[in-house]
Amino acid sequence: MLVVVAMSFFTLLWKVIYLAIFVTTLYALVEAARTPAQAFPAMDKQTKGLWVGLLGVGALLSLSAVFGYGAFLTILSLVAALIYLLDVRPAVRSIGRPGDGPYGRW
């Protein structure tokens, strides 16, 4: 009986982890879609289409993991989302926003 409870707990824990990865990837996808396309080459990053495509596939992979399919691929989704959120997004965020100076809003 204890083994069944422990397995249920770990199954639920992994579902929560997969759901958190899905939310992170979806957030990165929305941010990439909202960013102007000219900001990516201006900051010497890959194109907007590449990032939206990678993050879109990552969101689908992580959503499928929530439902129990392809869980081993979610690490790729998380890596792509974290690279976008921690490296690309801060660089491209300042491009294309009127009224922003080098230290924030004027």
From TrEMBL:
Q: Which domain of life is it from?
A: Bacteria
- Name the keywords, alphabetized: Membrane, Transmembrane, Transmembrane helix
Query: Pfam families under this entry?
Result: DUF2516
Q: Which InterPro entries match?
A: DUF2516
Query: Where are the membrane-spanning stretches?
Result: 12-30, 51-84
Protein name stated in the entry: DUF2516 family protein
Q: What organism does the record attribute this protein to?
A: Spinactinospora alkalitolerans
